[in-house]
């Protein structure tokens, strides 16, 4: 493997500078034996090399230096200009060949393409939601979506976020995670400490039909299960009525579909599945040694862990 491409199995939690927070976490969980869909990371060095080869490093910096953070139009203009510069630049041929070769080795028609910032997620700062992800990406759209992930380091909200967190002069790069796409029947998030009450003896699982993007983007209300961490007993179950879900679009990408009326009010995970997932997530928390915010998917009676990061809302 080159310095530009790393398989998950070659990465660990100390590789944030190379693989970003998301990539390093997926590598660490893969090596720890957690069920993570296979994949690889296009490292931050690849992005830095791309900027250097296309002579964009100075141009991007010049645009950022012009930004008036009090002026929304100024931020938007810089963001759009940088996006166009990155998206229109020619992909380095050797890197293109490497990425497509690794994609073929996954032996999957579709992958998830996710941005992974090299500024580490911490208890006070999280890049979750700041950068872009592209689900159900085929080979024809792979390189374009990689560029979009690179460019998402400079979306208006990411530019402002860096300023707010005092990271304007901090070197922040972006890696890109390419991961086998799981067409989740049910998906969601687990917080290994109750994020509202901050009770360390309780964990929360949120669950909804379809791909997890619907929950992460706040567009549906998921089921909510409260579990005691000592013995995995379920303390509370709150079932949400779900009218629509995100699934793979036959023509590419994702789309919303209506859920059958008799399915809408059903509990998304049964008691056995809730306990099984709770054990997996607590195992991850113990491995890391801090409370985790974990994205998961469930298909054909198997749980997959798609991401894990520190919970940023705990004081």
CATH superfamily placement of the largest domain: ATP-grasp fold, A domain
Radius of gyration (Å):
20 Å
Give the CATH architecture of the largest domain.
Answer: 2-Layer Sandwich
Number of helices: 9
Summarize the structure.
This protein has 315 residues and is an alpha+beta fold. It has nine helices and 13 strands.
What would you say this structure looks like, in words?
With 315 residues, the protein is of the alpha+beta class. The protein has two domains: 176 residues, Dna Ligase, domain 1, CATH 3.30.1490.20; 125 residues, D-amino Acid Aminotransferase, Chain A, domain 1. The protein has nine helices and 13 strands. It has a six-stranded antiparallel sheet with strand order 9-8-7-6-12-13. A hairpin with a 2-residue loop joins strand 12 and strand 13. The longest helix is centred in the C-terminal third of the chain and has 18 residues. It is globular and about 55 Å long. The mean pLDDT is 91.
Task: Please write out the topology.
Layout: E1 5-7, H1 16-31, E2 39-42, H2 44-53, H3 57-65, H4 72-88, H5 93-106, E3 111-117, E4 133-137, H6 139-151, H7 156-164, E5 174-180, E6 186-191, E7 202-209, H8 213-216, E8 223-228, E9 234-238, E10 244-248, E11 254-258, H9 271-288, E12 292-299, E13 302-310
Antiparallel strand pairs: 1-2, 2-5, 3-4, 3-5, 6-7, 6-12, 7-8, 8-9, 10-11, 12-13
Question: What keyword list fits this structure?
Answer:
about 325 residues; alpha+beta; Dna Ligase, domain 1; D-amino Acid Aminotransferase, Chain A, domain 1; 6-stranded antiparallel sheet; 5-stranded antiparallel sheet; 9 helices
